[in-house]
Every structure is written in C-alpha cells, then in structure tokens.
Amino acid sequence: MKLKDFIAQFKKQQTENNRIEKTRYVCAKWVMVLPFVKSGKVVDCPYNLKDVKACLPIFRINGDETPTIHEVLLRHNREDILKMAKQKNKHYKRTVNWEHLEFN
C-alpha cells in the first residue's frame, strides 16, 4: 500500500469515527452539571462545548461511557459536585474523572 493510499484511508476512518462519536453524543442527551445540580434545570450541553463546560449524560448509551449525572449524584454530595463543576469550567482543558471527582 502506498503512503498516499494509507493517508486517504486513515482520514476516511477518522471522519467516520468522528461522525459516530457525534451521533452517540447527541443520542445520550448531555446536560450542563451546574444548573442541573443547583436547581434541577436541564440545560443542553452542545457538542462544541462538551470539552469546555462540565457536562454529563442523563442516560447511558452503552456501558463504557462516563457515569450519568444521576449516578454521580448518588455517589457524591452536591457541594463536592458543584465545586468540581466550577473548577472544570475554570480549567476547561482538563478532563474530570467523575467517579472520583478529580482531574485526570
């Protein structure tokens, strides 16, 4: 296989993977953590903001994704979740391990 063909195949695969990720993201119904925990208000988290804001899914599409917002609320108290969500919004380039409420 020539390098040119390999690069074309790689780009095609990346485009397909990106499409699948966007589809899975949209199906999962992601919401912003701060308004949901503070007042129970459901504010959609757009796909282009999912890495910037603290967002979690309401329900799970498959078993290997991040925990849902309800699972996080059952495991941790509201004050700790609010504190971590505010830190995530401030340090938006970092990812959060929501099971342990710490940055990866």
How would you portray this structure in words?
By secondary structure, this protein is mainly alpha-helical. It has one domain. Helices cover 51% and strands 10% of the residues. It has a two-stranded antiparallel sheet. Helix 2 runs antiparallel to helix 4 (78-90). The chain is elongated. It starts with a helix and ends with a strand.
Number of helices: 4
Mean pLDDT: 81
**Portion in beta strands:** 5-15%
What is the total domain count? 1
**Percent range for helical residues?**
40-55%
Rg over alpha carbons: 16 Å
The description of the largest β-sheet is: 2 strands, antiparallel
Strand order of the largest sheet: 1-2
Shape: elongated
Which series of helices and strands comes N to C? Answer: HEHEHHEE
Q: Could you say which structural class the secondary elements and strand pairing correspond to?
A: mainly alpha
Count the E strands: 4
Report the end-to-end length measured between terminal Cα atoms: 38 Å
Which segments are poorly predicted (pLDDT under 50) over 5 or more consecutive residues? Answer: none
What distinguishing features does this structure have?
single chain; 104 residues; mainly alpha; two-stranded antiparallel sheet; 4 helices; 4 strands; 51% helix; elongated
